[in-house]
Specification:
219 residues; alpha/beta; five-stranded parallel beta sheet; three-stranded antiparallel beta sheet; 50% helix; binds zinc ion
Length: 219
């Protein structure tokens, strides 16, 4: 079975959910840089504070910091089988991470890219509301929740993210494209990239991912 996977995708593409499902099904580690940093921030560690400095200004992490976060996490939890969610964000991170992998005689086996039209990303992001503690997201329309409600998972307060405004979102999308397109090009030259249509339902996307991952294990 292909065990080291990268899952790429824009905001609101369902990347985190799919990574979680795949990790659970195949017994892999789900490496979410967002979740790791949220945890560090909640614990008030130096790394958490450093991370908050960047994200509170809507800035992306420096490559070296993102790489350290992922490497430390894998050093603790193991490098054998994982799915990366939210990393690598830049071609520089992808290259540097490959170097770290090859020094451990390992490599990325498979790269998936979830793809979603901008109009749909905007619709989903502007509709969503986020838990201030666990980071779960809900749809104001579908889940019938609003600002200040309690999170169904952990009970903390739900809020619209400060950067979930149309102007901020358009900036994030432009930045995402500018940084992520080179990541896709980079992997295209090595392991190849499988594009998945993120307009489909959660279950449809997950079953395609399962088929693709299982099919490779037979070869
Ligand atoms: Zn929560």
């Amino acid at each position: 079975l292909k065990r080291r996977i990268v899952l790429l995708g824009p905001p609101a593409s369902g990347k985190g959910t799919q990574a979680e499902l795949v990790a659970h099904r195949f017994g892999m580690l789900h490496v979410s840089t967002g979740a790791i940093l949220r945890e560090e921030r909640n614990r008030g560690t130096d790394l958490g504070k450093e991370a908050a400095r960047w994200t509170s200004q809507g800035l992306l992490f420096p490559d070296a910091l993102a790489l350290d976060v992922v490497e430390c996490y894998l050093d603790v939890h193991g490098w054998d089988a994982f799915i990366l969610d939210g990393f690598p964000r830049t071609a520089g991170q992808a290259r540097a991470f490959d170097a770290r992998l090859s020094s451990r005689e390992a490599m990325i086996d498979r790269v998936f890219s979830l793809c979603l039209p901008d109009e749909e990303i905007k619709r989903r992001v502007l509709d969503r509301i986020t838990c201030t503690r666990c980071g779960a997201t809900f749809s104001r329309g579908l889940d019938e929740v609003s600002d200040g409600d309690a999170c169904r998972i952990c009970g903390a307060r739900l809020e619209r993210r400060g950067d979930d405004t149309l102007a901020a979102l358009e900036r994030r999308l432009a930045q995402h494209r500018q940084l992520t397109d080179p990541v896709i090009d980079y992997y295209q030259q090595s392991v190849g990239v499988t594009v998945l249509d993120a307009m489909r339902t959660r279950d449809e996307i997950f079953s395609t991912l399962c088929e693709l991952l299982e099919e490779r294990s037979v070869v």
